[in-house]
């Protein structure tokens, strides 16, 4: 039996670097998703959980709060128009990731493993990455910064240096 790979701190930093540098450079989101897939060990929620934490950080940077709410209606279409969400299953996964990031930002554990254990395809990194892109773009719009500047700020929170 093969030894199960347990993600390391370096794996976490690599996932952060891949995601944020890709968004900052304006690269194709599907290409970044493929890069992140390589980092996912079999039957594991990594790097999805790391990406949800980054999305929660982006929510915090955006200034979204009870006093300054964000309209959730049509959020995917407004902030990630290049991705088409087809079918009830894809929409469910996407909504879960978006809401999970909000829960994390509020200090609530969204029980990722409990949710994704029921998914036919263990692909939380895909939906978590889409949530990250959306909330980076929300933060950029609400703060008047570029997406690259938001990504740099997020990277700094995690002691990650993005390539120039």
Description:
The chain has 164 residues and is mostly helical. It has one domain (10-157). The chain has 8 helices and no strands. The N and C termini lie far apart (42 Å). The mean pLDDT is 92.
Task: Set down the secondary structure blueprint.
Layout: H1 9-24, H2 29-39, H3 48-62, H4 75-79, H5 87-105, H6 112-116, H7 124-143, H8 147-157
Mean pLDDT: 92
Main sheet record? none
Helix content: 55-70%
**Poorly predicted ranges:** none
Oligomer: single chain
> DSSP helix count?
8
Outline type: globular
Class inferred from helices and paired strands = mainly alpha
* Beta strands, count: 0
Number of domains: 1
End-to-end distance: 42 Å
Radius of gyration: 15 Å
The ordered string of helix (H) and strand (E) elements is HHHHHHHH
Strand content: under 5%
List the keywords:
164 residues, 62% helix, globular, mainly alpha
Q: Summed up, what is this model?
A:
This protein is an all-alpha fold and 164 residues long. The protein has 8 helices and no strands.
């Amino acid at each position: 039996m093969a030894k199960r790979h347990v993600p390391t701190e370096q794996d976490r930093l690599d996932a952060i670097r891949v995601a944020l540098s890709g968004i900052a450079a304006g690269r194709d989101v599907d290409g970044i998703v493929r890069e992140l897939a390589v980092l996912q060990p079999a039957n594991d929620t990594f790097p999805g959980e790391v990406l949800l934490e980054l999305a929660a950080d982006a929510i915090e940077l955006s200034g979204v709060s009870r006093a300054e709410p964000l309209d959730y209606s049509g959020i995917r279409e407004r902030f990630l128009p290049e991705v088409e969400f087809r079918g009830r299953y894809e929409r469910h996964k996407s909504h879960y990731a978006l809401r999970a990031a909000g829960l994390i930002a509020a200090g609530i554990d969204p029980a990722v493993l409990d949710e994704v254990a029921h998914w036919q395809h263990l692909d939380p990194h895909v939906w978590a990455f889409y949530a990250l892109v959306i909330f980076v773009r929300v933060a950029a719009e609400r703060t008047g910064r570029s997406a690259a500047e938001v990504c740099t700020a997020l990277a700094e929170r995690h002691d990650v240096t993005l390539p120039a």
